[in-house]
Amino acid sequence: xxxxxxxxxxxxxxxxxxxxxxxxxxxxxxxxxxxxxxxxxxxxxxxxxxxxxxxxxxxxxxxxxxxxxxxxxxxxxxxxxxxxxxxxxxxxxxxxxxxxxxxxxxxxxxxxxxxxxxxxxxxxxxxxxxxxxxxxxxxxxxxxxxxxxxxxxxxxxxxxxxxxxxxxxxxxxxxxxxxxxxxxxxxxxxxxxxxxxxxxxxxxxxxxxxxxxxxxxxxxxxxxxxxxxxxxxxxxxxxxxxxxxx
Length: 246
Description:
The chain is mainly α. Helices cover 74% and strands 0% of the residues. The two termini are 23 Å apart.
């Protein structure tokens, strides 16, 4: 959830540049438009992949209740995908073409981090997906108001967070040895997720230009460092919530 939704108008940050504009005005800049199409394409494929993964993980669920919980979360992810797909079509872009450049990188990430059991799947959904969401929230602060609202809406927690925390903590309480294994797994996910995010940005000129100067009040290099520090700090807090050491 975006922290700004809990702030009064006086507390919310003053928007400038692209971030103070709506899509119709901001998209007149071809480079910005290309960057947003890339961003929405990456997010859309990420949501579609999350739907597929949660549906697959449901097969590993130890009970019918757990299976139903994951199925509901998968449905929520698919709804997020539909919103992004529909938005791309609305602005005159072919959704499949917008997603295509990101399929190899995201599929590779999921192959490299395939969980071996139910608990690893929960930790991946909670830790791995949250790292990506934190990154996209940082980027959203620089976007036009219409795109920012959509991105933050599709990054809303589908309920997986509290569900994963409860299940993982219960498993560790039942067998403390589980904690060490899952902590190592979560650290691996952190490294792989950050590397994957950096690769995606580096391979897309419009995205990298938007992030590091150029358009949309991009980050300077010092701010990029602070951004990744904030993402790492949030990861540490999630690890603590799970009962794991970062």
